[in-house]
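Q: Sequence in, structure out?
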Amino acid sequence: MKTFSVEQLIEGIKSGDKRLLGKAITLIESKKPEHRELAEQLLKEILPFTGNSVRIGVTGVPGAGKSTFIENFGRLLLKKGKKVAVLAIDPSSSLNKGSILGDKTRMEELAREENAFIRPSPSSGFLGGVANTTFETMMLCEAAGYDTILIETVGVGQSEVLVSDITDVFLFLKIIGGGDELQGIKRGIMEMVDIIFINKVEEGNRQKAKNTKLELLRALHFLPSKEKNWKVPVLLGSALHNTGLNEVDEKIDQFIRMKRESGSFDKTRQLQAEKRFDYWVQEYILQKAKEEQSTGDSYELHKKNASDLKSNPSSEAKRFVEKLLKK
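A: Exactly. Output:
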């Protein structure tokens, strides 16, 4: 397999070469130490060309129609002159970290568009329904000129709220169910959402959809506001039949404009970068601790004490970190 230099990858990204953009993403997803060094160099070089997109997280329970929504919403954005990148995070096996990676086949029409780029990535067991390099992948897509980035997350429940840590807009897809319409919607997700779209609404279930909307609005009324100048809208439509998608786009524009005017847009981006810093500090400390002979043995010893339940795993971790910092 042909390998490319960092310079070739950078030129390819800046010129919009999808193949080289894909190669660059594969590089930053790699955990090999030699690849990590190249990835760091690549990210440093493309940094000045990043940050010029709207990052949209799309979440919802399995069956909510996320892929259909993203495909048809993405095509709507293309018609409006946007360049759209889709990062579709697939569930990974918790045993071997393998992934189905089927979203590219589910979004065939969007994948064929010249100004669209679809990248399925395994979550590799990473919490939050996002891959651990999704943030860095977004940066590469921005450097390639994509001005709208859609992140389709796995529907994994409450931990999925972590997607809000890397996006500008958090969009929640809801479908009409039987019984208690709010059953199964975690408070954490409701506190994170910026826009709610009730999907699969047709003439036959429109009244039920309106009732669901009222219940959601009531629930939102009792939750603290994420943005003080924003009331979370609940929109109705059908991604399959392309109804309500224009309204979603308008609300996203309105929301981003409000955040920019209030100054919270840049502030949020800064906080997100700080969280990525904290994440990578933990990753690199753990990696170094395992690699160094003097600390690697200690790490394995404390881990075994925890697994054998000789003491509380939290206590063993604390003892190991204290030893590590003394060294």
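Residues 92-104, 123-131 have pLDDT under 50 and may be disordered.
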